Amino acid sequence: MASARHGVREAPGGLALVQELLNTRATMHYGADLLLHADDGQRWLTEALATWSRVSGLPAPTLLISSNDMRSLRRLRTTFENVILAAGNRMDGALPPADVPVSLVPDADGWVRMVPTGRGTRWLASALWAEALLAQQAGLWPRLKLCHNVDCRAAFFDTSRNNSGVWHDVSTCGNTANLRAFRERKRLLGGSDGQIGRPQLPGPPQLGSGPPPLSGPSGLR
Ligand SMILES: [Zn+2]
Q1: Are 145 and 84 in contact (CB under 8 A)?
Q2: What is the rounded end-to-end Cα distance, in angstroms, of the chain?
Q3: What DSSP state is assigned to residue 103?
Q4: Ligand 1 mean position to 144 CA, how many Å?
Q5: Ligand 1 center–CA 121 separation, angstroms
Q6: Centroid of chain to Cα 65
Q7: What is the pTM of this model?
Q8: Ligand 1 centroid from CA 113, angstroms
Q9: Which of 41, 56, 121, 196 has the fewest Cβ atoms nearer than 10 Å?
Q10: What is the pLDDT of residue 201?
Q11: 146 Ramachandran zone, left/alpha/beta (phi>0; psi -120 to 50)
């Protein structure tokens, strides 16, 4: 599964399907793009839908995808990345309408269920938008995030008390960012050497020998 590649905490219930889609993207050195080749995409989708069906208690169709569908899946992934970024105020402008059908089906006790409909990748789009809406209603949506490390962007479910996590893993992406900030600070200060007094720099973060002091918001996993 895509999310398991990152070792991230998975979103609860059907929301994990949205997270799965986001985590199909290639990342750093350890993960290829699962939506590049139809056989990888098919394997991923079959597993993801089986899991979704189990947690949602709804049947999932067997979706057989072509290379054209792969393009639709990648577009869908970009759309949901934008929905996530919009929630974090990291995107300008409004999002286009989803334009997908869903069925509202009351069960024997009168509870209305939102059931995805449509054929092929349209069904998947329906399921993803339905899960996004349900997660927003349940207050879970703001906890589904993309790692702030732009080379990573792993989708993780933030379980920190105040929902302040920004890294999918503090010990990898958090440390990388701190090291980069430290080097940048050093470079800027080095440029003004001799003109103003050299400010006191903290020692460089020692990767692998304990976490460096963190500045700013950090993930709390
Ligand atoms: Zn990360």
Answers
A1: yes
A2: 21
A3: E
A4: 13
A5: 28
A6: 23
A7: 0.80
A8: 34
A9: 196
A10: 47
A11: beta
